[in-house]
Design goal:
Elements: H1 2-18, E1 21-28, E2 48-51, E3 56-59, E4 68-70, E5 83-84, E6 91-92, E7 98-99, E8 104-105, E9 108-116, E10 119-126, E11 146-154, E12 170-174, E13 179-182, E14 197-208, H2 214-218, E15 235-236, E16 242-245, H3 253-262, E17 264-266, E18 277-280, E19 295-297, E20 322-324, H4 325-330, E21 343-345, E22 349-350, H5 351-354, E23 365-367, E24 371-382, E25 397-405
Parallel strand pairs: 6-24, 16-22, 20-21
Antiparallel strand pairs: 1-2, 1-25, 2-4, 3-11, 5-11, 7-8, 9-10, 11-24, 12-23, 12-25, 13-25, 14-15, 14-16, 14-24, 17-18, 19-21
Length: about 425
């Protein structure tokens, strides 16, 4: 009986791993919410492992391609701009906007925060990853989050589409076994730190899949580059990052209690005025097993903006400082457009969406056929998440596992299917 169970478990494990790209990140975290500024934040170790199925190859240097990749020991290209939060993991906030000149995602960090009669006044500044070209010749990232370049070679088809059009691309799905949780090795359960994690995937640009020259691949930026003698054509992508929110319906009781204690309904414009707030317990209620929005930061927030961290219809009911994403996305750049909005109700790709089955399962992102795409991966703590409260830091250690697959269906989605598992395993490409 034990041997039979072992075989069954092995088949299950192979099925989970073989059909998708799996990236596992283990972070030892002593982090803090927007609200704390006294602690030294450290990330002491991490592990990232990636595996994929036939047709998708992975690389960290644009030269050595394989179906399996251990990021910790993988060869990376010279003068890369990868960062591993060696100086600490601190809360950030973003709506996934890209800086096309820097080829970097826009992130915002706490500039200042003080208590208000009904929450906390929020000031933010943009993380400086856009005007600090280092010795590498690249725009260097800031501190407090993980960011690295991943190159994905998609060998579907032979045609290379030079235009940046998602309609020319094929769907990629987030695997159903993707998960973020408190690590079983040293983590502290029931703190909720895992519920504030976000993982963003920013497609920078791509070249034709037959490209072999390393500098043509690693040098991809958001800018289009026409084909030239001995130089590959670059299709700049730079579309807004796709951001995954795991555990969207999970809220530990301690986070709920913190919110109930500090949040009050807001009715007045002056964020620090007691007359601008109602009584304790007057905010909208939150409950476990229910998804709530994140009003993510979309711009640097100054004193004059009068923002409270709980601003938004779903929390303190004050809507002046928040906007829906569709309105924000449709606005033009500039003071009369996007720059006027402070907090955006951001539409993450959630675990609820990931768990849909069969024809209801939505695509996570798209990749062009016959292409090598440069993807900038960001892992961070979302400061505006309702689960991000002071004591969440006591969770200490989190485990992040995610992956991609071209397969929309799992075998369990097909009624009556009794055939073999999709792929048992593959070898590397030389």
């Amino acid at each position: 009986m034990a041997k039979k169970n072992n075989k069954r478990d092995n088949r299950r494990l192979k099925k989970l791993i073989a059909i998708c790209v799996i990236c596992a990140v283990v972070l030892v975290v002593s982090t803090y919410a927007w609200f704390i500024g006294m602690k030294t934040v450290k990330v002491n170790e991490f592990e990232i492992e990636i595996a994929t199925t036939e047709g998708l190859f992975l690389s960290m240097d644009g030269q050595k391609w394989s179906y399996k990749l251990d990021v910790k020991s993988a060869t990376v290209y010279d003068k890369n701009a990868n960062v591993w939060a060696d100086d600490g993991l601190i809360p950030m906030s973003t709506v996934g906007d890209m800086d096309s000149e820097a080829s970097r995602m826009k992130l915002f960090e706490k500039g200042s925060l003080t208590t208000t009669p009904g929450g906390y006044r929020l000031l933010t500044s943009r993380v400086n990853n856009y005007n600090n070209v280092g010795a590498s010749g690249q725009q260097e990232e800031g501190k407090g989050y993980v960011a690295f370049d991943l190159f994905i070679k998609n060998l579907s088809g032979t045609e290379y589409y030079t235009e940046n059009n998602p309609l020319n691309e094929e769907a990629i799905y987030l695997t159903t076994n993707s998960a973020v949780k408190v690590s079983e090795n040293g983590g502290v359960d029931k703190t909720g730190i895992e519920n504030s994690v976000r993982v963003a995937f920013a497609q920078i640009g791509r070249v034709e899949g037959t490209t072999t020259k390393q500098e043509d691949i690693t040098g991809i930026t958001c800018s289009d580059v026409p084909a030239a003698a001995e130089k590959a054509q670059v299709t700049g992508i730079c579309r807004n990052a796709q951001i995954w929110e795991p555990n969207d319906t999970a809220h530990v009781q301690n986070a709920i209690s913190w919110y109930n204690t500090s949040c009050k309904k807001r009715t007045g414009a002056t964020v620090t005025d007691a007359g601008s707030y109602g009584d304790k317990g007057s905010c909208a209620t939150i409950a476990d097993k229910t998804a709530y929005p994140t009003y993510a930061v979309s711009k640097a927030i100054a004193i004059a903006d009068q923002v409270d961290v709980y601003d938004g219809k779903e929390y303190n009911t004050y809507e002046t400082n928040s906007i829906d994403y569709a309105t924000y996305d449709a606005a033009e750049a500039g003071p009369e457009g996007k720059d006027q909005y402070k907090l955006v109700n951001f539409p993450y790709f959630t675990d609820t969406m990931k768990a849909k089955v069969g024809m209801e399962r939505p695509a996570f992102m798209t990749l062009a056929p016959n292409s090598i795409t440069k993807v900038r991966v960001y892992i961070y703590i979302e400061g505006q998440d309702i689960d991000n409260y002071d004591f969440a830091q006591l969770g200490k250690k989190i485990s992040v596992n995610f992956g991609f697959t071209k397969e929309r269906f799992e075998t369990s989605d097909i009624e009556g299917y009794n055939g073999p598992s999709p792929v048992e395993g593959v070898d590397a490409e030389s």
